[in-house]
């Protein structure tokens, strides 16, 4: 048997969504947040969580969200499946497809999700790879929309830190909503060109403005939203000391935040390395929307599951 060439929709990247589909998902997320028991689309359905890395939010939000929709999750930990080691990725994908209705993958290498999706005939959701974190991107843009309203044109978002998986997905989500994103990273830590190109293509359609530079103060000036993420992501632990040095001057602290609008909100996808990329004062301060953002993972993922599984019973 060769790869399954089915018409099943996957969510491997924010780039998989048309702009109008993203808008639909965000509206559904808002309805689901307002009424947690509004839909039971997952009654009798099973979502498999196959994770190669640790997680709090991604695992919990899918598990609780699926239960609220009437379904249930099966969690397979890093030690259990051995994607590509104990068993080929394609064989795991075929077996999971026979039993589960959708699968959330958290992987070391992005290619693993792409390969899995080629062989899966149930929806594959990217629960984080080294290159992208699209479920986070959904929750991020939803959180910004909650504060700024549904039209994000003219809303200025500053992202200060590593041009990593979280930055890639944020770029794509912003590009599809027409907002403005100013990214500041240390030289050599900018987002990858392929994500810049995808974001630029979407920005041309929506009027979004995306700039990438190396000056945190300029990026944060008069911003409505200030976002940061860890300097050392999962899997990069051996680079910790080098990164700590490279990211000096990129900490989100009170002095940097003071350059943003007075009512700017602070975002961080968590887990935070307090005292490194963000101070306690900022993450625990009155401008922090970080825990709303964490909660919103669940509402946006519920919407995603309803949308991906619609009509697949
Ligand atoms: N933000 C996020 O994805 O958190 P976890 O790594 O805990 O899932
Ligand atoms: N950039 C971080 C995000 C964690 C949710 C990491 O990949 O470890």
Please outline what is shown here.
The protein has 313 residues and is α/β, with parallel strands linked by helices. The protein has 13 helices and nine strands. The chain has helices at 19-34, 57-68, 78-81, 89-99, 110-119, 134-148, 165-175, 193-206, 216-220, 240-246, 254-257, 280-283, 290-309, and strands at 46-51, 72-76, 102-106, 124-126, 156-160, 180-184, 209-213, 225-228, 265-268.
Explain what the structure shows:
It contains 13 helices and nine strands. By secondary structure, it is an alpha/beta fold. It has two domains: 14-133 and 297-309, Aspartate/ornithine carbamoyltransferase (Rossmann fold, 3-Layer(aba) Sandwich), CATH 3.40.50; 135-294, Aspartate/ornithine carbamoyltransferase (Rossmann fold, 3-Layer(aba) Sandwich), CATH 3.40.50. The chain has a five-stranded parallel β-sheet with strand order 7-6-5-8-9. Strands 2-1-3-4 form a four-stranded parallel β-sheet, sandwiched between helices. Strand 3 (102-106), helix 5 and strand 4 (124-126) form a beta-alpha-beta unit. Helix 4 (89-99) packs across helix 5. It is globular, with a radius of gyration of 19 Å. It starts with 18 loop residues before the first helix and ends with a helix.
Write down the secondary-structure element order. HEHEHHEHEHEHEHEHEHHEHH
Uncertain regions: pLDDT < 50 for 5+ in a row? Answer: 1-5
Going by CATH, what is the homologous superfamily of the largest domain? Aspartate/ornithine carbamoyltransferase
User: For the residues shown, what is the average pLDDT?
Assistant: 95
Question: Which CATH architecture of the largest domain is right?
Answer: 3-Layer(aba) Sandwich
Q: Total strand count, please?
A: 9
Helix count?
A: 13
Overall number of structural domains? 2
- Give the overall shape, derived from the CA principal axes: globular
Please tell me how large the radius of gyration is: 19 Å
Q: Report on the biggest sheet.
A: 5 strands, parallel
